[in-house]
Every structure is written in structure tokens, then in C-alpha cells.
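Translate structure to sequence.
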């Protein structure tokens, strides 16, 4: 079977499975609705039913419009440039009852399937993250290929299994996604635990190469008076061999991915998705295992099952304070890819009843340029701005005051919740962000795989953005700045002369825990104190670019 034969089977299988799951959950909710006498509980069940059915419908919707009429293109482009943030005026609709006199910007939303207030933000371990004492997947294991990546997405990936543990592997946004997931989790949101991985050992399986490009197509068609003019395909085909750092042969040799292609395929000039006999079986028998390039890894929670995406503008989600406030959090770390296909409604069974969770399933796309003509650019420390907010500006008698605003950031597509964020919503989120310490920011960066130079520059920029945000929102008297005298924008870091960035973390219960990008160093961090010291990868330095910023240099 070639790729054209394989694709419909895999995609239909997964889509049907999720649709069936959503239908089963809806049927269960309808049954409980028929026997539930309490009116308040019935309203909650109706709300859950709406969420499930809407999520199932969203699964069938592509991430971009299927076609544009020729005359509508300029208006669509203009609308894209107008997708802003923090233009709301109406207060959030899901706030907890508050004591008389309590400020509107200091009231939490009702705990929901999106968010719950964490017990203690300053005590969270952001090196490991997600309430863990170490990764919940076996590092260094020999993984078995389990299947292709089948959903939408520009970045390729696959699924793998080691014993009972199943993971999703994605090539791209390896570190920014791990960082954003830890930050969102620490502030109370549902996320999929995501880790940076220097590379995986994967047992050879030709399916890895043949199924590498089975992701759903992202394309749109331009039409004139209903007639097709041009079809734009946004899903690039990727060469799977370029994601193999090395192939380890049974005789001990290591060869590159490009060399493996030359030896393995009968016609190296053709893609591996062709006829089955395009692979040389005698070479396959000599491949011990494959080593992938760096990737990010998400573990599969066997208790949670996906139904489909949820949207920021469906079912009055835009009136939720926690989703509005997420706009300020996204702008702080530069997470611009808030498209609805990067979310998931998930379900778990508790005492025989379904419990829903709205999760941020893909937080890649941040820590770089926060906006662009079509999208931003992730993991570009030199393009990550030092500030992203501007304060309200009083222009004098008879002139309108310019409100607080967010600059240098724009989501990839219109986000109704981010747009409807009010000043009160922003101040509420700023109080959560303000609880993160500098130590936690560094932990998060090192735990997400950034090298020491990147960690130094990102730390200063994130602190600069945080302190400026607090000041611009009028909270400086309440939230102390981390840099009272301002950040150092003329960084100079030479890894040959200065120690790498390090953090101290609780000892994992697994005493043999090792991270290839953050090794445990003997003698540093006494185990009797319940700590170990982890270092950022030491690769590059920082040199002053001008009087206003330091740049990571290669």
C-alpha cells in the first residue's frame, strides 16, 4: 500500500473513534438528564452536553477556510491584521461571589473545566513540572514505533510505545512548547505534560518512513465567481531521513540519516512512501535502531480520552475570566498559535459519570517574534522583545485617554476571549504571573532544554516584560519588581569563562534519573538536603549588540 492508500484508513479510523467517543459521552449525559430531578444539576448537564456536541462538530472543521472568493481576499487579509487583544469592556460573566468592596480585578472565576487556582504557585517545581518528581516516560529506552501523526499540524511527528507507556513525539517547537506547558500548568490550566528530548532511540520500522507525511492536509482554494483559480497547500512534505540523527547498525557502525537513505532505498531519489519493494531488506536487517534529532515528547494519560477541539469563542467561552486572562499570559511568553485545533476537550470517567476537561494540547509557538504577516516566529531569543505592554496615557483636558495596551503580539487567528480581555481581567492574570519567582523562570527554561546562553537572555527578557507589565497595569505597589533598578540589556556571557546556568531541584524518587540536556553533576547539591543541581546545556554565548540589548551569538 502506498501513502494514498494508507492515509484514508488511518484518518478515518481516528476520526471515527473520537466521534464514537463523543457520541457515547453525549448518550450518557442524556440518560443522566432524564433521571436528574435537581434543576441546577440539569443545567450543568445541558452545558456539558453542549460542550461535547460542539467539540465533535469542531473535529470536522479544518483549521483554515476551505476556499476564498477572489473579491473577499482583501477583506479577509485586513481582518487578519485587525486581530487584536485586550479591547473588551464588559466584565467577565463567571466570577465568584465577592465580599462587598472587593475590587473586580481581584475576584477569581468559578473553578471550571478550564482552570482551577493552584494551591501555591511559588512552590511549584517548574524544572520537572506537572506535579512530577521526574519525567513520567522512560528516558534512554528503546522505543517501538506505534503509529503516525494524523491530525493537523505543520510539524511532523509520530507515536511510540515502551511497555505500557505511550508517547507523542513532535519535531518542532521542541523547547518553547515544553516551556509554555509548564507555565500554563503552574498557573492553573489543563495542559498535556510536554518535555524536551535530546533524541529518542527508536527500533527500526519501515513504517516510520512510509507514514511520516500522513498528517491532514492544510489547504485553501481561491475562486473567482465560484470557479477555482489556485489551491494553496500549507502542509509541507518532509523528508523523514532528515529527522534521523544516526542509524546504529548491528556491526556497531553509526551512519547519518542521509547515508541511511542511500543504503536503504533502491532509488534514493524517490520518496519512501512508494512501493514496498523500494526498501532493501538486507539493509533493514542490519539496522539495530535509529536515533532521532531533538524533539518534544507528550505522554498519553490513559485515564483521559480526547473528543475534539474547543474554541475560545464557542458557548460564551469568551466571557470566561480565565480564558480572557490567558491572553495576557500568552502575550507575556509570546505564544501566538492559539488556533482552536491546538485545544482538546477530554473526558475521564469518575464514579461511572463523565468528567470533562478543556485542555491546551499544543502550546508550541512562542519565545520569539510575537506577530508577523501571517504568524510569529518561535524560539528566536534575539527577536523576543524586552517589553510587550504600554500604560494608559492621559492626553490632557478634552482629549481621550489612550488605554492600557499590548504591543508586539498578535494571535495567528482572531481569538474572541483574548479580544474581550478587560483591564480587570489583565490585572487578575498579572497577579498570578507575579507570583512566579526568578528561580522558577530559570528552572522552567533549563527544564525545557534551553542552553545556558539562551536561558540567561530569556530570563532577563521575561523579567523585563513581567516588571514592565506590572507597572503598566498599576500594580507596582502590590507586586514587587524582580529587577528594582531595571534589567541589564547589555548582557555579555562567555561560556568559556563563566559557569553555566544551574538550578537546584528536589531529588527524583528514581535515583538514576538523568537528562541528557541537564545532567546531574556529582558533588553538587547534597542529596541529604533533598536537592540536585541541574545545568543548562552550554553551547553559545551572549554578546552586546548595541546599547539596548544583548544577543545570543553562535
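Result:
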Amino acid at each position: 500500500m502506498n501513502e494514498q492508500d494508507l492515509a484514508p484508513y488511518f484518518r478515518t479510523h481516528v476520526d471515527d473513534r473520537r466521534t464514537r467517543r463523543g457520541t457515547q459521552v453525549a448518550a450518557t449525559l442524556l440518560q443522566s438528564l432524564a433521571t436528574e430531578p435537581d434543576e441546577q444539576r440539569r443545567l450543568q448537564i445541558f452545558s456539558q452536553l453542549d460542550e461535547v456536541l460542539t467539540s465533535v462538530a469542531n473535529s470536522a472543521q479544518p483549521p483554515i477556510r476551505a476556499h476564498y472568493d477572489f473579491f473577499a481576499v482583501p477583506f479577509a487579509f485586513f481582518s487578519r491584521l485587525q486581530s487584536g487583544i485586550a479591547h473588551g469592556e464588559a466584565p467577565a460573566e463567571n466570577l465568584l461571589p465577592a465580599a462587598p468592596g472587593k475590587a473586580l480585578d481581584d475576584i477569581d472565576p468559578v473553578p471550571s473545566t478550564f482552570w482551577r487556582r493552584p494551591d501555591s504557585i511559588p512552590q511549584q517545581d517548574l524544572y520537572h513540572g506537572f506535579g512530577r518528581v521526574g519525567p513520567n516516560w522512560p528516558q534512554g529506552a528503546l522505543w517501538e514505533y506505534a503509529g503516525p501523526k494524523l491530525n493537523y499540524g505543520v510539524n511532523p511527528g509520530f507515536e511510540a510505545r515502551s511497555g505500557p507507556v505511550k508517547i507523542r513525539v513532535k519535531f518542532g517547537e521542541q523547547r518553547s512548547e515544553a516551556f509554555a506547558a509548564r507555565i500554563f500548568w503552574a498557573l492553573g490550566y489543563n495542559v498535556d505534560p510536554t518535555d524536551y528530548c535530546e533524541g529518542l532511540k527508536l527500533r527500526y520500522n519501515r513504517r516510520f518512513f512510509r507514514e511520516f507525511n500522513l498528517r491532514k492536509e492544510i489547504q485553501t482554494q481561491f475562486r473567482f465567481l465560484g470557479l477555482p483559480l489556485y489551491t494553496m497547500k500549507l502542509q509541507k512534505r518532509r523528508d523523514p531521513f532528515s529527522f534521523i540523527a544516526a542509524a546504529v547498525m548491528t556491526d556497531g557502525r553509526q551512519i547519518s540519516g542521509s547515508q541511511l537513505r542511500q543504503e536503504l532505498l533502491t532509488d534514493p531519489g524517490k520518496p519512501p512512501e512508494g512501493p514496498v519493494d523500494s526498501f532493501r531488506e538486507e539493509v533493514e536487517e542490519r539496522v539495530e535502531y535509529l536515533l532521532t534529532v531533538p524533539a518534544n515528547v507528550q505522554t498519553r494519560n490513559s485515564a483521559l480520552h480526547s473528543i475534539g477541539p474547543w474554541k475560545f469563542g464557542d458557548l460564551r467561552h469568551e466571557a470566561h475570566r480565565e480564558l480572557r486572562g490567558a491572553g495576557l499570559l500568552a502575550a507575556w511568553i509570546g505564544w501566538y498559535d492559539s488556533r482552536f485545533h491546538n485545544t482538546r476537550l477530554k473526558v475521564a470517567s469518575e464514579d461511572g459519570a463523565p468528567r470533562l476537561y478543556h485542555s491546551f494540547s499544543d502550546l508550541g509557538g512562542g519565545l520569539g517574534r510575537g506577530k508577523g504577516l501571517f504568524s510569529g516566529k518561535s524560539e528566536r531569543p534575539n527577536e523576543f522583545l524586552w517589553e510587550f505592554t504600554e500604560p494608559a496615557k492621559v492626553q490632557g483636558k478634552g482629549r481621550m485617554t489612550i488605554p492600557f495596551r499590548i504591543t508586539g503580539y498578535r494571535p495567528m487567528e482572531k481569538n474572541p476571549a483574548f479580544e474581550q480581555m478587560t483591564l480587570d481581567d489583565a490585572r487578575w492574570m498579572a497577579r498570578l504571573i507575579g507570583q512566579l519567582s526568578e528561580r522558577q523562570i530559570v528552572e522552567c527554561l533549563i527544564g525545557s532544554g534551553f542552553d545556558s546562553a539562551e536561558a540567561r537572555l530569556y530570563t532577563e527578557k521575561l523579567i523585563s516584560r513581567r516588571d514592565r507589565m506590572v507597572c503598566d497595569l498599576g500594580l507596582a505597589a502590590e507586586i514587587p519588581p524582580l529587577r528594582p533598578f531595571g534589567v541589564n540589556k547589555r548582557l555579555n556571557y562567555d561560556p568559556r569563562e563563566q559557569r553555566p546556568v544551574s538550578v537546584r531541584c528536589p531529588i527524583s524518587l528514581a535515583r538514576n534519573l538523568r537528562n541528557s540536556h541537564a545532567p546531574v553533576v556529582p558533588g553538587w547539591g547534597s542529596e541529604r538536603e533533598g536537592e540536585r543541581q541541574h545545568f543548562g546545556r552550554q553551547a553559545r554565548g551572549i554578546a552586546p549588540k548595541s546599547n539596548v540589548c544583548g544577543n545570543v551569538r553562535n
